[in-house]
């Protein structure tokens, strides 16, 4: 003859919706406090407990396995996509500082260049005027220097007045300032000192501005052709130094809160690839990337065997830890009652307590919980669905 308990168990396993309200009372198998089936945002601090007691037969048949949990700093492994970029200070955009026309190209794409090497020549009226201004300023400074020295001697001999010496001093200071200004203008457009010094000995002004490499590296892009007219600040090419690259990883905001500078990371060509490098996170951007709404982590690494190269997509595996101590609950121990995560805590061999837990993250094979569990408690990791069904049966039976 089918018992009431068996009949109700069949109904529960078929998934028929049931509604019940908890009530107090004594039974041979269940002891309950006040039970509140309310969402976590509504439930108060005095939420009741539900105790499930098993008979000897049920204990033997179910043979429930348990796992002991304790709070600790948990280690996580986060997966994230990444893109390789040239590292800061290891990439240089070559541009023209003045208007002009490309008169010579001395480099080809893919060619290795050294710092200071000539890359382009630009015929420029602006540059020619700057050279002329510098030469005039140098000549005026020399004249005013000589005039000042001569007037100092005349004043000492009382041949010239003190006011003439003061005017000469003022003219000398203006000439010096003009010379410094003309020199600074040439330096600002990238003319090296040895070329500036050579202007004074040249018989005529050459209006060809030489564009030099600013770093060692490989010439990556050429953006102009011979004879092309260019405007000031227009890009001519790019140099990349592959001795160091920057890998940008893209994390969800939820994952990013676990990541800190200094965390170790494995960079792989693709998931499961044997080609990988070990590195550490250099920095974490404080805001979200506007394009993909992700938090960007930056990793500077030295390539090995020409890998990785700028433009490549890579996979990141970041090793990090929790902020403070948390509980790592085996996923087998967690089930849900509506939207509320629950576990069954072992009281003794025949008794389990149904308890709500606060699951903040799912990591690997564990649910990370911060509240609802105490150190060294044992949780059921098998027959959890049966315990859940029995807990519902007990509530119905009390009615």
Strand order of the largest sheet: 15-14-18-4-13-17-16
Q: Any idea what the radius of gyration is?
A: 39 Å
Please identify the top-level CATH class of the largest domain. Mainly Beta
Overall body shape: elongated
In round numbers, the mean pLDDT is 84
Low-confidence parts lasting 5 or more residues at pLDDT below 50?
A: 1-5, 10-47
CATH fold title of the largest domain: OB fold (Dihydrolipoamide Acetyltransferase, E2P)
CATH architecture type of the largest domain: Beta Barrel
How much of the polypeptide forms β-strand, as a percent range? 25-35%
What does this structure look like?
- The protein is 26% helix and 35% strand.
- It is α+β, with helices and mostly antiparallel strands.
- The chain has 3 domains: 4-65 and 325-398, conserved putative lor/sdh protein from methanococcus maripaludis s2 fold; 77-88 and 242-321, Efflux pump adaptor protein, beta barrel domain (Elongation Factor Tu (Ef-tu), domain 3, Beta Barrel), CATH 2.40.30.170; 91-240, Beta Barrel (OB fold (Dihydrolipoamide Acetyltransferase, E2P)), CATH 2.40.50.
- A 7-stranded antiparallel sheet has the order 15-14-18-4-13-17-16.
- A hairpin with a 2-residue loop joins β23 and β24.
Can you tag this structure with a few keywords?
alpha+beta; conserved putative lor/sdh protein from methanococcus maripaludis s2 fold; 4-stranded antiparallel β-sheet; 7 helices; 25 strands; 26% helix; MFP_Cation_Efflux; transport; MdtA-like_BSH; Efflux RND transporter periplasmic adaptor subunit
């Amino acid at each position: 003859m089918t018992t009431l308990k068996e009949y109700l168990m069949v109904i529960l396993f078929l998934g028929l919706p049931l509604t019940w309200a908890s009530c107090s009372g004594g039974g041979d198998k269940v002891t309950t406090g006040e039970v509140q089936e309310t969402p976590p945002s509504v439930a108060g601090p005095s939420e009741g407990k539900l105790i499930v007691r098993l008979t000897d037969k049920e204990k033997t048949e179910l043979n429930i396995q348990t796992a002991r949990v304790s709070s600790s700093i948990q280690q996580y492994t986060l997966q994230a996509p990444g893109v390789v970029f040239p590292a800061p200070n290891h990439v240089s955009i070559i541009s023209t500082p003045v208007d002009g026309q490309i008169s010579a190209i001395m480099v080809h794409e893919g060619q290795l260049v050294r710092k200071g090497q000539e890359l382009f020549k630009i015929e420029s009226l602006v540059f020619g005027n700057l050279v002329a201004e510098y030469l005039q300023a140098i000549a005026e400074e020399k004249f005013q220097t000589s005039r000042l020295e001569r007037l100092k001697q005349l004043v000492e001999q009382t041949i010239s007045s003190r006011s003439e010496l003061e005017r000469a001093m003022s003219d000398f200071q203006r000439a010096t300032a003009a010379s410094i200004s003309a020199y600074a203008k040439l330096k600002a457009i990238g003319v090296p000192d040895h070329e500036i010094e050579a202007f004074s000995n040249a018989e005529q002004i050459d209006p060809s501005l030489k564009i030099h490499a600013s770093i060692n590296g490989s010439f990556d892009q050429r953006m102009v052709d011979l004879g092309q007219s260019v405007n000031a600040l227009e890009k001519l090419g790019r140099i990349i130094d592959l001795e160091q690259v920057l890998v940008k990883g893209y994390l969800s905001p939820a994952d990013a809160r676990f990541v800190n500078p200094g965390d170790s990371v494995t960079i792989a060509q693709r998931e499961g690839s044997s080609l990988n490098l070990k590195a550490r996170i250099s920095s974490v951007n404080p805001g979200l990337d506007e394009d993909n709404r992700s938090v960007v982590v930056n990793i500077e690494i030295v390539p090995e065997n020409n890998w990785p190269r700028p433009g490549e997509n890579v996979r990141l595996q970041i090793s990090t830890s929790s902020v403070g101590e948390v509980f790592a609950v085996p996923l087998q121990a967690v089930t849900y009652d509506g939207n509320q995560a629950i576990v069954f805590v072992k009281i003794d061999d025949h008794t389990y307590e149904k308890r709500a837990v606060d699951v903040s993250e799912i990591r690997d094979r564990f649910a990370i919980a911060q509240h609802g569990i105490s150190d060294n408690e044992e949780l059921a990791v098998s027959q959890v669905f049966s315990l859940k069904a029995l807990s519902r049966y007990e509530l119905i039976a009390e009615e």
